[in-house]
Amino acid sequence: MIDSIRGQNLLTLDDLSSRAIVEILDTAESFVEVQRRSVKKVPALKGHVVASLFFEESTRTRLSFETAAKRLSADVLSLAVASSSVKKGESLRDTISTIDALGIDAVVMRHSSSGAAVQVSRYVPHVRVINAGDGQHQHPTQGLLDAFTVRQILAERHATSGLESGAELFKGLHVLIVGDVRHSRVARSDIHAYTALGAEVKVAAPGTLLAPDMTKWPVTVADDFDEALQWADVVGLLRLQRERGSGSLVPSLAEFTSTFGLTVERARMLRPETIIMHPGPMNRGVEIDSRVADLPTAAIARQVSNGVPVRMATLFLSMAGLKKDGSI
């Protein structure tokens, strides 16, 4: 297990120890203050270039990463895939070689193929690669920002700073992840982040939307969704990913909502302090009712806001001490 991402790629959370995760969360806490300044910038990565390569559509993650890089004073090179040579059949390797020739220090990449970020890290070993989501594999920074958001809320409730709490606030925490687990890279990253920090995780979904072999996952599959909601301290909802075929794996959207959607009626089963989360984009009225998404205990907008300091921390640590030849 890796105890720090200093000078390292961030391709998956599976390789990170609880110490490495806490280091990232603590560093993110130190960057939260930057968001409150009138001039929201620090010179930490001045003179460095971050390439933003999104081969899949994205709003939150792309803007969050680009904002994070700019607040660290890095220059951002953003590839518009729709108007690039990728549309003419250029290979991933040739695209990366072209970008690398322009002089970059880090690549933030989202791709529809699982393992694409790992492949890019082999093409350009002198460049730091941050995985912004690859197929159904991983979405490391989403897992980190979700854990950061939960820790922040719990720390506030316990009147203690996040820097003092480390992983202690997660000990004995009950986390329920609901929805399209089978196709979700967010679920995979969230589960590792939460369990590494000491939380207990259950998942709830139709059998068709669970992974083929859940025994390999460090989770329990909930037999009774309503009972699991009463058990949970945190409920993380997942989008039904129709673009990955999940729509064909449920009889209808209405039936999915009636059996596994967080409706107003089900929200009443939650304890008053239960945290409601969603990585976005939300299918309002499918996995979550609009009125539930807007409850005070829903941390969905906060997750988006926390994406910037968490991604600042990731970029800063990954590129820490990076020289132009890629050495540390």
Structure description:
- The chain has helices spanning 18-32, 60-71, 92-101, 116-123, 140-157, 162-165, 185-196, 225-231, 253-260, 264-267, 290-293, 300-318, and strands at 49-54, 75-79, 106-111, 128-134, 174-178, 200-204, 220-221, 234-237, 275-277.
- It has 328 residues and is of the alpha/beta class.
- The strands form 2 sheets. A 5-stranded parallel beta sheet has the order 7-6-5-8-9, sandwiched between helices. A 4-stranded parallel beta sheet has the order 2-1-3-4, sandwiched between helices.
- Helix 7 links the parallel strand 5 (174-178) and strand 6 (200-204).
- Helix 1 crosses helix 12 (300-318) and helix 5 (140-157) packs across helix 7.
- The radius of gyration is 19 Å and the shape is globular.
- It starts with 17 loop residues before the first helix and ends in a 10-residue tail after the last helix.
Blueprint of the fold:
Blueprint: H1 18-32, E1 49-54, H2 60-71, E2 75-79, H3 92-101, E3 106-111, H4 116-123, E4 128-134, H5 140-157, H6 162-165, E5 174-178, H7 185-196, E6 200-204, E7 220-221, H8 225-231, E8 234-237, H9 253-260, H10 264-267, E9 275-277, H11 290-293, H12 300-318
Parallel strand pairs: 1-2, 1-3, 3-4, 5-6, 5-8, 6-7, 8-9
